[in-house]
Amino acid sequence: MAFFLKRFCFLAIIFCTLFVLVLSCGETFVSPIVLIQSVFESSEHSVVFWNFRFPLAIAATFGGAGLAVSGLVMQSVFRNPLAGPFVLGVSSGASLGVALVGVAGIALTSLGILPAAMAGAFLTIFIVFACSRFLIGKTGILIIGLMVGYLADAIVSLILFFGEANALRGFITWGMGSFSRLSITNVPYFSVAIIIGMLPACFSLRYLNLAPFGDEFVKDHGISVSFYRWLNLLAASFLAAVVTAFCGPIAFLGLAVPHLAYGIMKTTDHCFLLPATALLGAMIALLASLFPNLPLQALMSIMGVPVILWILLSSKGRYHA
Amino acid sequence: MLKLLEIKQCQFGAEKPLLNPFDFSLVSGEVVALLGENGVGKSTFMNLCVGNAKLHSGEIFLGKQNQLDLSYRELFRKISLVRSHLQIPERILVKDFVSLGLESRNFERVKSALEKTETLEFLNRPLITLSDGERSRVLLAEALVRNTSLLLLDEPTAFLDVPHSLALFKLLKRIAQEENKGVLISTHQVEHALRYSDRLLVFLKNGNVYSGKKDELLNKGVLSWAEIS
């Protein structure tokens, strides 16, 4: 237990540091002391703080945590270390929603994109889970999700092929992902939605620990497979949908952060792995947010892949990755 | 001796019944070996006892309670099933695996279960790196940590050589006697089963089921399919 506490304290310190850095850094650097003052007093920095930096920090924290937890749940339920938040086609569905809005000619403002992305993402979830009801086993759900995702991607490709240059530019920009799109008015909705999305996993720790051994093993240990599987897959898809709708598709986080968390915590017990994953997801997203003008997906992959490879290769022989 | 498991005129199977209706009971402190050729329904019977197979007719009692009246959680607290064909994830450590048998964290019970099965030295090793014999003992430790009165083992000797198979039988015999558990073990190691079990339960391909003392069944020629008389 002491081992885990030390690790969590270390991660928490880095998280707090990154959070303050994101609030402080931007076109101009604002010291933490001035930041605190601007929270309570109206000043020239208050506008920047409340309208740009605070929403950015919140979006990165909750978005990063949400995607990472979604990826961990997907990997545990599907018993597949390469599963991520978007294996059930959520990102593709959101992209399709945004592409259709562009074709329909609605200007690509936040007001247009957000509902379109939401509608596309949740429609995908609905289709995948409605079709999966007729199948036994989780492989069927996975295949349906992949197929729906491929179909959505294909339709998006056709839309882009016939689309206008301006619309294309807007779609491509959205597709790069960014935590800067969250407005201060959306902060409460976004944060609450992410917290709600993570709650089922918090109440399913035992199931998530048992799931990698197969359905019979889960049942042997007194847990209802179908209830917890559906609950967690729906929650993980919901998390992916919310983050994608508000921030655009963000790859890497959901797939790689669970492995990073495992490498640091050295346990498969979700009691420790889940909070570590959430914390690390938030940290990596915050780190990427220090460079808001660069493409988010590319930045996180460039930062994160060497770290993952280092952890895997330095652990060789001590435990299997 | 308490009657821990009672089967009354049961028939079970995925689609049609595999065997003729039969009665069977398992009491505390005894080891019963479940024998039979491949495909007669030994694993299905094990699954039936833990509520994971279809009961066509008859009743199953765990103690005085009908199995159908028990939830999965209540079954979990009464009966442990050790599966030999378990998909083991690559990363899980032995201590984390054995902890899966507990509903709340208790490291002392994990250590105690590993000590009983002589696998404490593997505490921090990945389960997948153990040999077949070591792994089978750790799987048993996970069942023991649950501290259920009934212990079922589905072909735990499947991948074991003779010395490891003998060691496992001896361990189960000791556990049954010292902890007053009822142990049902399905196995193809007929000679070891004859040596270390108190009674036999035999499923035959013609659908007949026999249970009773070893000598009694041997005299009836029930084990002729294994060329043992």
Please give a structural write-up.
The complex is a heterodimer of chains A (321) and B (229). Chain A has 321 residues and is an all-alpha fold. Chain A has one domain: ABC transporter involved in vitamin B12 uptake, BtuC. Chain A is 76% helix and 0% strand. The longest helix of chain A has 35 residues. Chain A is globular, with a radius of gyration of 20 Å. With 229 residues, chain B is of the alpha/beta class. Chain B has a domain of 156 residues: 3-Layer(aba) Sandwich (Rossmann fold), CATH 3.40.50.300. Helix content of chain B is 33%, strand content 24%. Chain B is built from eight helices and ten strands. In chain B, the strands form two sheets. A six-stranded mixed beta sheet of chain B has the order 6-7-8-3-9-10, sandwiched between helices. In chain B, helix 4 packs across helix 5. The longest helix of chain B has 18 residues. Chains A and B meet through helix 9 and helix 10 of A and helix 2 and strand 6 of B.
Primary descriptors:
heterodimer, A: 321 residues, mainly alpha, globular, B: alpha/beta, 6-stranded mixed β-sheet, 4-stranded antiparallel β-sheet, 8 helices
Short synopsis of the structure:
Chain A is mostly helical and 321 residues long.
Total beta-strand segments of chain B? 10
Mean pLDDT of chain B: 89
CATH superfamily of chain A: ABC transporter involved in vitamin B12 uptake, BtuC
User: In percent, how helical is the residue content of chain A?
Assistant: over 70%
Low-confidence stretches of chain B at least 5 residues in length (pLDDT < 50)? none
Instruction: Give the overall silhouette of chain A.
Output: globular
Shape of chain B: globular
The number of distinct helices of chain B, counting runs of at least 4 residues, comes to: 8
Tally of contiguous helical segments of chain A: 14
Name the CATH homologous superfamily of the domain at 3-86 and 148-219 in chain B: P-loop containing nucleotide triphosphate hydrolases
Instruction: Indicate the multimeric state.
Output: heterodimer
Side by side, the strands of the main sheet of chain B go 6-7-8-3-9-10
Low-confidence stretches of chain A: 317-321
Helix percent of chain B reads 25-40%
CATH top level label of the domain at 3-86 and 148-219 in chain B: Alpha Beta
Instruction: Please state the second-level CATH architecture of chain A.
Output: Orthogonal Bundle
β content of chain B, as a range?
15-25%
Stated plainly, the CATH topology of chain A is called: ABC transporter involved in vitamin B12 uptake, BtuC
Order of helices and strands of chain A: HHHHHHHHHHHHHH
Structural class of chain B: alpha/beta
Looking at the overall shape, the CATH architecture of the domain at 3-86 and 148-219 in chain B is 3-Layer(aba) Sandwich
